């Protein structure tokens, strides 16, 4: 049955084609149900393939559908590479993605472009599945670009709003910068191996020179920084919140941003062949990203922005794990993060939906009684991401920190530095997550209060400029000189709450697949089958039982301390953990610097480049064309079409030749 793996991407592709041509005729809600059923079918097919793969001695399956690029010695097939890594990602993409599709059926109800949303949604899922299943770097790149294009279409889905259109462009352009690195790494790989197929390049990777392997890894890592939102290309991801909440959940939890982590784990033999400092660069970038994003999350007022920066931070954990050789830990956290982060995003979407599109947490408060199911589900997911035992995030985050500490125990001082930063960021994670929970669900209701002037309002603007302004999703109306937003909190229906509840349950149980005790590391054993080698490429933990228990206890203590700190700050009425932090970091300074550069010196530079291209490059090409055209016009006069003119030309030519001959004869005599 494993040979039916082609059905997994084929089903969402079929949904895309059908909805593209007939979606408007099918209408709402049938178009949404069709897209969801096809994703559910892809998940069932994934389970069937997994069952068959587990029963085989070789847990690797290669299926070639057809030749895509036949060009001399360069041959690229459209084929699928199924192993434990791709199977793990298949289950995440189809399972979590299917729940998000179901949620979107209710969330997008009433949207005038309802069917179009699911056209993009199914195409997004198909692209991610091709990325995961592709048997070569070029086919992976096809899916890589597909999810990038779909993210642009979905982030800017409500393109009538300027912020949404801008966010979509930012995501698209920033990812193109990272894609340059991917392409260069891919070209070097082909130049060295003569192939892009994983089944050919990965077994030969140990024979690479360290310099060549390092170049491939570093260029591919540029692509990872763009797709998985690592420093310095992370700033597009928080703005991706401009899109509808289901796409925020799909991008941040189950698909696009995890593609970079998948790629790093996939090419782990090449990482092992590189210089020793290359993995430390990967780990260092991940460490810096997780800390910076956590600090920025502490001061956000938009509920979805908190979760967005949280995603950047958690991706930093995964990348750091790859850098220290903890490939299984990175994949483990990828899976658990998909569960609790999807739950949090869909829960936040339920809050926004029930609050008439309001997203500013300063206008929430007291929603625990208004939205009890959403509250309890988000509480479970928040405890999971905060690292509280025995929820899923506790096991996966501790797994990463254990690998990092293990690197320090091997005599690498940098390992202890990374561990300290990772542990401190775990504290910050608990603080900003429960700051969000307290501001949203606890305290006195604030949704009937007048909107404060500092909620993104320009107090100098006129009433006409503010009328029906859309600020961070909050529809503002002007009345008696004050801005008010009529809000009547309500609990969404079970079509939206059902997926949130299932994801909350997964946030509890997903961690049990890889606990750090003998006989319980199921995911690690599964991934060891042909994906990572515990001797050569993947770090091996050597903790004794008491050391493991001490690490687990420390992780829980740090998470509990963060929750307590957030509670004390909330009770003291402090919106920001550190005075002035909100004013300083409510907008990312790095993002602001990029925006300033693009608007000022960048615009001058781009205008200069445009002038150079228009005047020098095009001018040179146009000048050559003008010279050729003038010469042709002159030469055309010689072709008059009159026989007497041609006869005169022949006579003159003969006279010239005769004169030359006579001159030569006289010179010789």
Give a structural overview.
The protein is mainly alpha-helical and 669 residues long. 69% of the residues lie in helices and 4% in strands. The chain has 27 helices and 6 strands. The chain has helices at 7-26, 30-54, 84-107, 114-133, 137-155, 162-193, 198-204, 210-227, 236-239, 245-254, 259-266, 268-273, 277-297, 303-323, 327-354, 367-370, 372-385, 392-409, 413-441, 463-466, 494-509, 522-527, 545-571, 581-585, 589-599, 601-636, 643-668; strands at 61-71, 74-82, 470-471, 474-475, 477-479, 482-484. It is globular and about 115 Å long.
Q: Which properties best describe this structure?
A:
669 residues, mainly alpha, two-stranded antiparallel ribbon, globular
What does this entry show, briefly?
It contains 27 helices and 6 strands. It is mainly alpha-helical. The protein has a domain at 601-668.
Q: What distance lies between the first and last C-alpha atoms, to the nearest angstrom?
A: 97 Å
Structural class: mainly alpha
Portion of residues within helices: 55-70%
Bin the strand percentage.
under 5%
Shape: globular
Radius of gyration: 30 Å
Strand order of the largest sheet: 1-2
Topology at a glance:
Elements lengths: L6 H20 L3 H25 L6 E11 L2 E9 L1 H24 L6 H20 L3 H19 L6 H32 L4 H7 L5 H18 L8 H4 L5 H10 L4 H8 L1 H6 L3 H21 L5 H21 L3 H28 L12 H4 L1 H14 L6 H18 L3 H29 L21 H4 L3 E2 L2 E2 L1 E3 L2 E3 L9 H16 L12 H6 L17 H27 L9 H5 L3 H11 L1 H36 L6 H26 L1
Antiparallel strand pairs: 1-2, 3-4, 5-6
Helix pairs in contact: 1-2, 1-4, 2-3, 2-4, 3-4, 3-10, 3-15, 3-21, 4-5, 5-6, 6-8, 8-11, 10-15, 13-14, 13-19, 14-15, 14-18, 14-19, 15-17, 15-18, 15-21, 17-19, 17-21, 18-19, 18-23, 19-23, 25-26
